[in-house]
Write a structure and sequence with these properties.
heterodimer, A: 329 residues, alpha/beta, Rossmann fold, eight-stranded mixed sheet, B: 338 residues, four-stranded antiparallel sheet, 30% helix
């Protein structure tokens, strides 16, 4: 097994708003191994994006990381000061988002933007930074890098803009790329291109990728491992095929059953009753208990720990009292 | 399906024209919908699928005459609604409604649920007062919302609940035909399933006909009887859902589209077809077949001659030079000048 690059341990994030305190992340834990792609999947409001932002210690205004550790090669990112963080963000961990048009500055050429990022982090001459930028554009399969260098964001399509974002993110040799819904705004044929590119970069440049998405299909086709998030914690994780094809948690099963597939044609789809919890109250028991068809008394009282299911994949874990609880997590 | 179509679209084109330059002489013409022909039969769901900018939304709106077609006919029960005068059109509008992707944007945030749903009833029917309220409650219950929500406002609801209210409003005038424009694209999977089930139940109960527009292939496959695939303003393939999704897709674009959609399916870890490039700008489409620059199997002919939609057997329509078949709409599209 490859070694752990990033370990998120018992992360808690909350937001204080006018509406009250929102418990966004409640004990999220997972590991990302070197040169692997980990999918963090869940519906809106499950805390997946906030977890991604917490990793670079950039929780949006009003939010606060109130517990847990984020270890990058053993060092706790959350204990670093702002200066040390600058050496991490963009240098060792980079992030790309759903809408590349909003991440790029419309008034500067994309070349200008990548050169700035490179020179911020690495001591390179203007000329060397230019060469580095062209190399990066080439590595993300951009045709005609010199022309692209002089283009402005609005002159490029969504797929091209996302390639630019990826090249900027990786320009300083980041080890971990956090991709938050990187293909959600793109058309399927372009999505396929970007996903293939990420898979290719992971292999060639040996970077690790945290892919945050709501799309189980994307996870199924790209990730080595997956964590299913619900109400700010992981309810099931493991090798992608184990989690998706031998799911244990009632929520994972419910999500998969709700997907329209060839087999379900024209029949009624299974849906999960109720709504995702709003995060305004910190639930005492399992966060899923009021939507779960197998709910037991125990589920209302204590949150189930994430424990191994004991299958062939020793990393396949589930947080549910339906499964034997002898082993401790 | 040997019945009379509810809607027949004949040679429908919607071009958006804008002028540029100092003297406004440079004309830019976006062929959003270009010579589309199709029929929609009673109580079926015709799915329209395609990438952004392919004209699927404009097609849906042109069929309802929410945008004015540049050319062509839309026959609703045999009557060309493109030519109707405003009062005749108003009568027809009751029979055709639309549900949009984002109810947050299509609802007036200062209206409560009662006003939102009552508005079309007040415009088109004599219902007032208690009778009106009763009808609104009935509509809400039909879409799975409790009647108590009457005096609540859009911001108090989740996306799925709002979409139910949008459906209730669309059903207020007992339409025969609904255009559903990406109605589940903004929803989470578990809620999407509820709304899809709702559409299927309502279709069976109220004998509705749907034009279901989406970019999501798995949703199209689930809900449609027939599927039209659009690319840069044109229908490039049209057939039954079974034919298209169970290995019978004929157009190289349809095959690529199916191959690039990510799916959770252990049996379908198939060979992915990854297309190069992106969708061309509809203001400046490539000559010949608009797909030829990205097509993995294009011929020299493809960059010169535009293929026509052909019946390749059993009513399966596709437009590709590699296919053999009978040309369905032999008349050349009219040259349109605005």
């Amino acid at each position: 097994m490859s070694d752990v690059l990033l370990s998120v341990q018992d992360l808690h994030v909350r937001f204080d708003t006018y509406a009250g305190r929102i418990y966004a992340v409640n004990g999220m834990s997972f590991d990302i191994h070197r040169s692997r792609m980990f999918g963090l999947v869940g519906e809106s409001g499950c805390g997946k994006s906030i977890t991604g932002m917490s990793i670079v210690n950039m929780v949006p205004h009003g939010g606060k990381i109130v517990g847990g550790k984020i270890l990058l090669s053993g060092q706790n990112v959350l204990e670093m000061n702002e200066r040390e963080m600058e050496g991490i963000r963009g240098r060792r961990i980079s992030m790309i988002f759903q809408d590349p048009a909003r991440s790029l500055n419309p008034v500067f050429s994309v070349g200008n933007q990548i050169v700035r990022v490179i020179r911020q982090h690495i001591h390179l001459s203007r000329e060397a930074a230019y060469q580095r930028a062209l190399e990066m554009f080439d590595s993300v399969a951009m045709p005609d890098p010199e022309r692209i260098f002089r283009s402005f964001p609005h002159e490029l399509s969504g797929g091209m803009q996302q390639r630019i974002m990826i090249s900027i993110a990786l320009a300083c040799g980041a080890e971990l790329l956090i991709a938050d819904e990187p293909t959600t705004a793109l058309d399927v044929t372009i999505q396929a291109q970007i996903l293939a590119l990420l898979a290719d970069l992971r292999q060639k440049q040996r970077i690790s990728i945290l892919l945050i998405t709501h799309n189980l299909g994307v996870v199924s086709e790209t990730c080595d491992k997956v964590g299913v998030a619900y109400a700010g914690r992981i309810v099931e994780m493991g090798e992608t095929d184990e989690v998706l094809f031998r799911s244990k948690h009632p929520y994972t099963r419910g999500l998969l059953a709700a997907l329209p597939q060839s087999a379900t044609r024209k029949s009624a789809l299974q849906s999960i009753p109720g709504n995702v919890p709003d995060g305004l109250t910190l639930l005492k028991g399992c966060p899923f208990f009021d939507r779960c068809q197998f709910v037991m008394e125990q589920c209302r009282q204590t949150p189930p720990p994430l424990i191994p299911v004991g299958g062939p994949d020793e990393d396949h874990r589930v947080a549910c009292f339906l499964y034997p609880q002898e082993q401790s997590a | 399906m040997n019945q009379t179509p509810l809607i027949e679209v004949k040679g429908l084109s919607v071009h958006f024209v804008s002028s540029h330059g100092v003297l406004r002489r440079r004309i830019r013409r976006v062929r959003a919908v270009d010579y589309v022909n199709l029929a929609i039969y009673p109580q079926e769901t015709l799915g329209v699928v395609g990438e952004s900018g392919c004209g699927k939304t404009t097609l849906g709106r042109a069929i309802l005459r929410l945008v004015k077609p540049t050319a062509g006919q839309v026959l609703f029960e045999g009557e060309d609604i493109v030519q109707l005068n405003p009062s005749e059109m108003r009568r027809r509008r009751r029979e055709m409604q639309i549900v949009f992707q984002s109810p947050q944007l299509s609802f007036d945030s200062r209206f409560n649920v009662l006003n939102l749903i009552a508005e079309p009833l007040q415009t088109h029917t004599p219902l007032r007062g208690e009778e009106l309220t009763r009808r609104v409650v009935e509509l809400l219950e039909q879409t799975g919302m409790p009647g108590e929500v009457l005096f609540r406002y859009p911001h108090e609801f989740s996306g799925g609940q709002l979409q139910r209210i949008a459906v209730a409003r669309a059903l207020a005038l007992n339409p025969k035909f609904l255009v559903l424009d990406e109605p589940t694209s903004a929803l989470d999977v578990s809620v999407q399933a509820q709304i899809i089930n709702l559409f299927q139940r309502l279709q069976a109960e109220l004998e509705l006909t749907y034009l279901f527009i989406t970019h999501d292939l798995s949703v199209i496959q689930h809900i449609s009887d027939r599927v039209a695939v659009m690319y840069v303003g044109k229908v490039v393939e049209l057939s039954t859902t079974d034919a298209i999704f169970n290995g019978g897709a004929q157009h190289p674009y349809t095959k690529a589209l199916l191959g690039s959609a990510p799916m959770v399916d252990s049996a379908r870890r198939r060979e992915r077809i990854i297309l190069q490039g992106s969708v061309p700008n509809p203001a400046n489409p490539p000559p010949g077949c608009t797909f030829h620059p990205r097509c993995p199997v294009s011929l020299p002919l493809c960059s010169q001659v535009e293929p026509k939609l052909m019946d390749t057997g059993n009513g399966h329509l596709a437009s590709c030079h590699l296919l053999q078949g009978e040309v369905v709409y032999p008349n050349a599209p009219p040259v349109i000048n605005v």
